[in-house]
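sry for the spam today, last one i promise. C-alpha cells for design, 321 residues
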C-alpha cells in the first residue's frame, strides 16, 4: 500500500465508523473515540432486542457506550446488507471501518473503503474462526489464545492478518473473565496499530488455511452436561458456556444449572449418578460447588442438598432441550 490521504478529515484524521454490539468491543470504541489519527463519524450496532421475562426492548451494550460518549449518528440496521442500510453508513463518507463483535456480514461496498475494514477477533487466527472463539479456546484446553486484528474480506474471518497479540492461558479461565481480559488486550492492540496502518507501515499477511479451525453459534441444548464424558471435559464446559448457554443437569427435581465446579477423585459409582459431592462422570467425580435450580437463585451445592436431600442417589436424566 502507498500512503494515502483520501478520507482524512481536514487532511489529517481518517473518517472512521465503528461496528459492534457485544461487550467485547466496549474498550476499543472508547479508545477509538479519542485516537488522534481518526475522526469517529458514527457507530453501527444491533437494533434494540426484547430481553428478560418482560421482553423489554433493550439497546446493545455498544449502543449504550456510544450514547455515553456522545457519538452521532448511531445506526441500528436490521440488515446491514440492505441497500438503504449500506447507503446510510456511506453517507458519513468514512474511509475506515473498525469492527468488534458485531454479528452481521459486512457488504462489499463497505469492505472496499480506502483504509478497509479492520476486525478485532478474540483468537489467534486462523484458529477458532467464527462466532464463538472464546468458549472454543476453553473447551479445547488451549494453552494460549489472543487477539487478531485482520483486514476483512468477503469470507468468514479469512482476511489477512494485520497484527496479533498472544495471551497465555492457565486452564482455569471462565468465558466472562477471559472476554474481559481480551477486551483490554484488543483495545491496546488497536490503539497501537491504527497509526502504522494508516501510514501503510503494516503489511497484512495471509492466513494459513491448512491451520484453520471453525466455531459455530451455541444452542441451548449444547449446555447439557453429558456424564458419559470425562469430568475434565465437563469442567471445561462449565467454564466455557457462561453465561450462554450455561451448563445444566436434568434431574428428578428439575433442571439444575451448574455455575462452578471442579474435577474430583475417581468416581466409585455409575456415570450419571448424583452423589453428595456432585455428578459421577465417565472417569471421575464432577464436584459441584455453586448451582442454580430452575427459577431459583444461585447457591452452594451444600445449601441445595439441604433443601433437596432426595436428589442424592438419583441419576441425571437425558434431555435434548
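last one done:
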Amino acid at each position: 500500500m502507498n500512503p494515502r490521504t483520501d478520507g482524512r478529515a481536514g487532511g489529517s484524521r481518517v473518517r472512521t465508523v465503528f461496528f459492534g454490539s457485544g461487550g467485547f468491543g466496549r474498550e476499543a470504541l472508547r479508545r477509538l473515540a479519542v485516537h488522534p489519527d481518526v475522526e469517529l463519524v458514527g457507530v453501527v450496532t444491533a437494533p434494540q432486542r426484547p430481553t428478560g421475562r418482560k421482553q423489554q426492548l433493550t439497546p446493545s451494550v455498544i449502543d449504550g457506550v456510544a450514547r455515553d460518549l456522545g457519538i452521532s449518528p448511531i445506526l441500528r440496521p436490521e440488515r446491514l446488507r440492505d441497500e438503504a442500510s449500506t447507503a446510510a453508513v456511506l453517507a458519513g463518507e468514512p474511509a475506515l471501518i473498525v469492527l468488534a463483535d458485531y454479528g452481521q456480514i459486512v457488504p462489499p461496498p463497505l469492505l472496499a473503503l480506502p483504509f478497509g475494514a479492520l476486525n478485532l477477533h478474540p483468537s489467534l487466527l486462523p484458529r477458532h474462526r467464527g462466532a464463538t472463539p472464546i468458549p472454543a479456546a476453553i473447551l479445547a484446553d488451549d494453552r494460549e489464545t489472543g487477539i487478531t486484528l485482520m483486514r476483512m474480506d468477503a469470507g468468514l474471518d479469512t482476511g489477512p492478518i494485520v497484527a496479533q497479540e498472544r495471551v497465555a492461558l492457565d486452564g482455569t479461565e471462565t468465558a466472562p473473565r477471559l472476554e474481559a481480559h481480551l477486551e483490554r488486550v484488543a483495545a491496546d492492540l488497536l490503539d497501537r496499530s491504527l497509526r502504522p496502518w494508516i501510514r501503510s507501515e503494516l503489511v497484512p499477511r495471509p492466513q494459513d488455511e491448512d491451520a484453520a479451525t471453525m466455531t459455530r453459534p451455541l444452542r441451548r441444548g449444547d449446555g447439557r452436561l453429558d456424564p458419559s464424558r470425562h469430568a475434565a471435559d465437563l469442567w471445561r464446559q462449565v467454564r466455557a458456556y457462561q453465561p450462554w448457554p450455561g451448563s445444566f443437569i436434568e434431574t428428578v427435581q428439575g433442571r439444575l444449572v451448574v455455575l462452578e465446579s471442579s474435577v474430583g477423585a475417581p468416581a466409585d459409582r455409575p456415570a450419571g449418578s448424583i452423589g453428595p459431592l456432585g455428578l459421577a462422570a465417565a472417569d471421575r467425580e464432577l464436584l459441584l460447588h455453586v448451582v442454580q435450580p430452575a427459577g431459583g437463585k444461585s447457591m452452594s451445592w451444600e445449601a441445595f442438598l439441604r433443601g433437596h436431600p432426595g436428589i442424592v442417589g438419583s441419576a441425571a436424566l437425558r434431555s435434548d432441550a
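The chain has two domains: 8-211, 220-311. ok im logging off now
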